[in-house]
Automatic annotation (TrEMBL):
Transmembrane segments: 32-51, 88-110, 131-157, 177-199, 206-227, 299-322
Protein name in the entry: ABC transporter permease
Organism in which the protein naturally occurs: Streptomyces sp. R35
UniProt KW Cell division keyword: no
Transmembrane helix keyword on record: yes
Keywords noted in UniProt: Membrane, Transmembrane, Transmembrane helix
Domain of life from the UniProt record: Bacteria
Length: 343
């Protein structure tokens, strides 16, 4: 065990410009190589989807719809392969923020504070604030770059299959919605920020990992609940001859309209073609369905509003991290005790 105390002005390699960036990259090389590998493999998978898989699936769907009632053949394997690969790719995109949060809490911050390597750096030549700034800035840049490329490629795949592949997910489906826009990038940065906060607060890698993932899941859940209400919806009125209110994509609310224009709950009876339902609607004085929903044109307003909220939470977590680190490390003198990691 070695105790070191800082004596003032930074002198050494870590005091030079960009030294902390290099130090962070060297210290977390396994994570860097893993992220580069994930980004490359993910990009290759998206390009495979965008090219051969989408073309083959679209052709198979055209053949299927051309069959009518007569016996004919179509490439079912192409349809199933596209469906499977695209679904797993979308799920993987949504998993990225949780992986970033787990790594940030456990390895980036928590383990270094737990083992004493962070205190060792502070004692030599780097202030805790500068150390944390480098720890956040370098991964944030890499996560933003890699995730942005994957989101862009996912959007290209989805748009190419839109209207051509009947099994493709609609734009408002939760996983597809996030994989196609900036919210995935925002969630990843929030995972990084809350992972850092958990690591500083708990100073234990395993505990920080769990808390960081839970915080990211909490933010994701809160955004899912708030999303339909982040932008003014469009009201659609439809006849009771339909089975239910017709939404434009992302449903906010729906029910029945009375002759006076009042909104009441839908008894979920179905179309007024059924005598029983027709009698029920007459008793309720219902004349039509209504629905408040979001059309596809609201995709970017919803995306950007949700992204701004998530980034605001991430910024708050970063601010609290710096304040907490400053409170715990005190002034300029730092005494570090380095513990050799367990084999």
């Amino acid at each position: 065990m070695t105790a070191l105390a800082s004596t003032g002005t930074p002198t050494g390699p870590a005091g030079r410009p960009f030294a902390m960036t290099r130090m962070t990259l060297l210290l977390h090389r396994p994570a860097l190589y893993t992220w580069v590998g994930v980004s490359v493999v993910g990009a290759a998978l998206m390009l495979w989807l965008y090219g051969p898989l989408t073309d083959a699936a679209a052709t198979a769907w055209r053949e299927y719809f051309a069959c009518g009632k007569s016996t004919c053949s179509y490439d079912q394997n192409a349809i199933l392969t596209y469906k499977t690969v695209s679904q797993y790719a979308t799920y993987a995109m949504n998993l990225v923020p949780f992986l970033v949060a787990a790594w940030a809490g456990a390895s980036l911050i928590g383990r270094e504070l737990e083992n004493g390597t962070a205190q060792l750096v502070w004692a030599q030549s780097v202030s805790p604030a500068r150390w944390l700034a480098a720890k956040l800035a370098v991964p944030a840049a890499l996560v933003t770059a890699g995730t942005s490329v994957l989101v862009l490629l996912h959007r290209m795949v989805w748009f190419k299959g839109r209207g051509k592949i009947d099994s493709a997910k609609p734009w408002a489906e939760e996983f597809t919605f996030h994989a196609n826009g900036t919210t995935t990038i925002a969630f990843a940065l929030a995972g990084l920020a809350f992972g850092a906060l958990a690591g500083i607060a708990l100073r234990r890698s395993l505990a920080a990992l769990v808390v960081a993932v839970l915080c990211t899941a909490g933010i994701r859940f809160a955004v899912s609940l708030a999303l339909p209400h982040l932008w003014p919806s469009v009201t659609t009125v439809t006849s009771l001859t339909h089975n239910s209110p017709k939404d434009l994509g992302l449903m906010v609310d729906g029910g029945l309209l009375t002759s006076s224009g009042a909104r009441i709950a839908d008894p979920l009876c179905g179309t007024s073609h059924y005598a029983m339902c027709r009698a029920a609607y007459k008793k309720l004085d219902a004349v039509s369905y209504y629905s408040d929903s979001h059309p596809f044109s609201h995709f970017w307003p919803l995306q950007l509003t949700a992204t701004a909220l998530v980034l605001a939470l991430a910024g708050l977590a970063v601010l609290v991290s710096f304040r907490l680190l400053k409170r715990r490390t005190g002034a300029s003198t730092v005494t570090a005790t380095y513990k050799e990691p367990a084999a």
